[in-house]
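Progress note, sequence design subtask.
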């Protein structure tokens, strides 16, 4: 069996806050034991949640298929915020296959599923795939096993390549790094997590909006994402640099994985212009980057060309668990320092295509809490269910 190595998603391995959270509120008389069986069935139906991470002595890492999932499910009577704060302080046992934790939170009239996942389990759309499987299993359906496809060299081959000067840069820093002979292990993973979460806790604010009303405020040809970005720039005039994750998932790919790239947006809201004029400028800027294939895949190609342990060192350097000249220079170059990190990041999962009426239960709402990664000051996550868009502002 061909090993599936961590390449473009490598930065998530030593990122202490590479966590995606989803809260699914269900209406109906549901026994926790029934939900637990459905959650375990969903884990078993995805290669991602049936894998562990193996970290080898030479610094390479790969997904290793397990016979029994290491992901967890439990019943918890506490509120979601308390559960989140406790869970985020416990490093995921990636080496044992613990990539996802699902907490069943019983209520008076509802039951909530709080899903706390490591980014190596998959992106935001992957969490929706997992949720859909849980709901299908809860409805009595038989699930189909879904393999994991990675954004690796075979996937990116023929799509784009790095500019020549960037390739020369990665070769140079790799040569410099290789002279150190340094690699990192699970002790370092534990240390950076403990150091970070000793002084951090995730806090978030939620607002809801009518999708119909948002579309009515969109200038012709623009999107809800364009609208959200423009509104954030207007409300945060000090912010000029935004990271926007974009899905590169192909239509036939229904498995959990990290099929996400990102584009940068540098735009200052111009108070001399109308909101619609700013909206059109933001729209044009985003479309410009999306039209350039090289820019669309740039971040993935760049990380893939770096030595895996050098990528690890940047995260450890950023959080005070390593000190090296090469990693410090690279951390500054890619925006992992206070001097040049992104002001904002916004992920819009779009319309959630999930059946809400499920026989003896129904899905009331779904909340998406995006990861607070090291290169962004604050992040926003949006997702729409029916006519309701829920926007979550998160920081740690």
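Output:
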């Amino acid at each position: 069996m061909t090993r599936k190595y961590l390449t473009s998603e490598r930065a998530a391995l030593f990122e202490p806050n590479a966590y995606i959270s989803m809260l699914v509120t269900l209406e109906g008389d549901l026994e926790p034991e029934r939900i637990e069986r459905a959650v375990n069935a969903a884990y078993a139906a995805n290669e991602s949640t049936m894998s562990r991470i193996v970290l080898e002595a030479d610094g390479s890492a790969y997904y290793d298929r397990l016979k029994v999932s290491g992901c967890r499910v439990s019943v918890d009577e506490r509120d979601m915020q308390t559960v989140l704060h406790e869970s985020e302080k416990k490093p995921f046992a990636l080496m044992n296959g613990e990539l996802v934790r699902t907490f069943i939170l019983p209520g008076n009239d509802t039951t909530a599923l709080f899903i706390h996942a490591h980014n190596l389990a998959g992106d935001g759309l992957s969490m929706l795939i997992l949720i859909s499987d849980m709901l299908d299993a809860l409805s009595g359906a038989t699930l189909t096993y879904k393999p994991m496809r990675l954004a690796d060299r075979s996937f990116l081959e023929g799509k784009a390549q790095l500019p020549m000067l960037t390739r020369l840069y990665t070769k140079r820093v790799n040569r410099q790094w290789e002279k150190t002979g340094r690699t990192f292990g699970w002790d370092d993973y534990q240390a950076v997590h403990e150091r970070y979460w000793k002084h951090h806790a995730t806090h978030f604010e939620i607002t809801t909006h009518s999708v119909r009303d948002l579309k009515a405020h969109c200038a012709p040809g623009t999107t809800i994402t364009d609208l959200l970005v423009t509104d954030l720039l207007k409300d945060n005039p000090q912010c000029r640099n935004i990271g926007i994750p974009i899905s590169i998932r192909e239509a036939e790919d229904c498995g959990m994985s990290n099929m996400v790239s990102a584009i940068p947006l540098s735009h200052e809201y111009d108070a001399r212009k109308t909101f619609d004029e700013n909206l059109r400028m933001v729209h044009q800027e985003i479309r410009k980057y999306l039209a350039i294939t090289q820019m669309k895949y740039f971040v993935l190609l760049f990380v893939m060309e770096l030595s895996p342990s050098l990528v690890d060192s940047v995260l450890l350097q950023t959080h005070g668990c390593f000190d090296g000249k090469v990693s410090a220079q690279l951390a500054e170059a890619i925006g992992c320092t206070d001097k040049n990190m992104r002001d904002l990041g916004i992920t819009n999962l779009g319309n959630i295509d999930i059946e809400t009426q499920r026989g003896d239960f129904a899905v009331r709402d779904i909340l998406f809490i995006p990861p607070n990664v090291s290169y962004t000051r604050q992040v926003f996550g949006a997702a729409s269910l029916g006519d309701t868009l829920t926007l979550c502002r998160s920081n740690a």
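The domain at 1-396 is CATH 3.30.559.10 (Chloramphenicol Acetyltransferase). Work on this subtask will continue into the next period as scheduled.
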